[in-house]
Amino acid sequence: MYGKKVKLRFLFLSLILIVLILTTYLVLKSLEDNVVYFISPSDIKELGEINYNKKYRVGGMVKKNSVSMSTDQVNFVITDFKNEIKVKFSGVIPNLFAEDKGVVAEGFLQDRNFLNALKILAKHDENYIPPEVKEALEEK
Questions:
Q1: What percentage of the chain exceeds 70 in pLDDT?
Q2: Residues 44 and 26 placed together within one structural domain of the fold
Q3: Over the stretch 97-108, which tens digit does the pLDDT of each residue have?
Q4: Of 40, 52, 60, 77, which sits with the fewest C-beta atoms within 10 Å of its C-beta?
Q5: CB atoms within 10 A of CB 111
Q6: Residues 28 and 53 placed together within one structural domain of the fold
């Protein structure tokens, strides 16, 4: 029916297609674990089910008079002016972290009202609010 050359070309193209599909799948699967989406405290309250093994990024403003620091831990409240979430963080705090300033905390939720943060991201100048925080505040 088909010659030997045609069969070899078809086999070669099939193998390339399979390798390409497999590579794409593996890349997307590995990125899935590293992608962390931004949510506001109000979004957390509206979540149907919380995955406690998934990293979340919670953004908003640091509530005034909510920051308490000890030698090894910082506790504060992130608010979007509708809802709030308490945050506990152990580690080095960015120099620009302050009350009434924009912040994004990345970590694991313990419940709808508490985040155990692994990383704190603070704004970098006086007029900057992270785009996700700004959009969430404008929507709410």
A1: 90
A2: no
A3: 888 888 999 999
A4: 52
A5: 11
A6: no
